[in-house]
Amino acid sequence: MQKPLAARLRPTTLEEVIGQQHLVGKDGILSNSIKSHTLFSIIFFGPPGVGKTTIAEAYAKQMNVKYIKLNAVTSNKKDLEDAIREARFYNECYIIMDEVHRLNKDKQDILLPYIEEGIIYLLGCTTQNPYIAINKAIRSRTHLLEVYKLSDEEVVGGLKKALVSEKGLNNKFKISEQGLKYIAKLTGGDLRYAYNFLEVIDMSIKKKNIDLNDVKTILKVPNFQMDKDENEHYDSVSALQKSIRGSDVNAALYYLARLCIVQDLDSIKRRLLVTAYEDVGLANPNAVDRVINAVDTAELVGFPEAVIPLGFAVVDLCLSPKSKAANNAIHEAMDYASSHPLDVMDYLKLTPVNVAEEDKYPYNRPDLWNKIQYLPNLIKDMKFFKPNLNTSSLYEKGLNDNYIKLEKIVRSSSLRDLKKK
Question: What is the pTM of this model?
Fold first, then answer.
């Protein structure tokens, strides 16, 4: 029985990997590691189908060291203990761990000391954000290397290789350039997904020369998502945020739907998170937290079910009160700071030099903290934050009231005098 196309075309060396030149190129970190035979533990993270596990295997092979493949979900404690026992017979050994973010504490406790001692080196692979999903103890012992979503051009290159390769479709048929670009656009940087489409085409269309219309009979998506210059796509992303900002829930749901049809979860997540902080912000921080939970859930369940938490988040943001006060404040501060790099007050520095004890920051006097001047003298009265006094949010009104009270306090740069009071 023949293996799937993606399995037959799996690269066995880094040179065969499509894309990821920052890792596998001539001056990539993995290429340099092989040249110097320097082993270190790595977490590869990135979206599905971009070659994380493939790169890990090819890298281990080219390092010419023993490697053992495990899966954090299906491998139990005995599997880990057996792998470690086997690794002891070799001077150098990699453990390739798929779904590494699912490694529970018990399994981590088994691995950590052996990673620490260099008995094993970990090559973990995950689709999750390692700063959120990977335990700090594992993270601190590994290098985090991002594996990027492939560009449309790179996916087209992979498809062309699959069509002519003896291990692939071996010139069984040809697909027009437009047809290949259509497949690449639809698959969103997932080469494995693109190879699967080739297999469907192979089974469904019995022609030597396949054009765009033939491909469309198999892969049906609305035309607006296949715009040549991607204007329609980016316009939909822009319209989604503007609709939420304008509290038009029906328009926002429409533009969300357009993005969900092509399953562009990355763009949706980024736009909803930015919109939550930028446009809702202080008026409803709980809605911001709910958006974070919603996009995490969407990523966990994947499409088609991802539309449920995403729709929830969009409705919540649309109908929420809005405030750009925090967003405006940080941008105004950045504009000013970029052209006025003023010195930090001596008593605020991490390790002040030649500062008398009486003039040092009073760590043990919380009663003085809100009476200290923190801005440099030249701008001590400057205001970057301007409260949104027209807010309908009770939470933001409470913040504004507290801000007004704090502004009435006279702050001082003489810590010596403050300590005497």
Answer: 0.55
Tell me if 259 sits within 8 A of 236, measured CB to CB: yes
Query: Residue 343: what are its φ and ψ, rounded to 5°?
Result: -70, 145
DSSP 412: B
- Tokens 């649309």 sit on residue: 318
Q: What is the dihedral of CA 213, 215, 218, 221, to 10 degrees?
A: -80
Taking a C-beta distance cutoff of 8 angstroms, is the pair 30, 23 a contact? Answer: yes
Say which DSSP state 76 is in: -
Question: Tokens standing for 70?
Answer: 């495990």
Q: Encoding tokens for residue 208?
A: 């030597």
171-223 pLDDT, tens digit each: 999 999 999 998 888 877 888 888 988 998 888 888 899 998 888 887 665 44
CA distance 359 to 372: 12
Cβ-count burial 213-241 (b if 16+ within 10 Å, e if not): ebbbeebeeeeebbeeeeeebeebbebbb
Q: How confident is the model at residue 69 (pLDDT cuts 50, 70, 90)?
A: very high
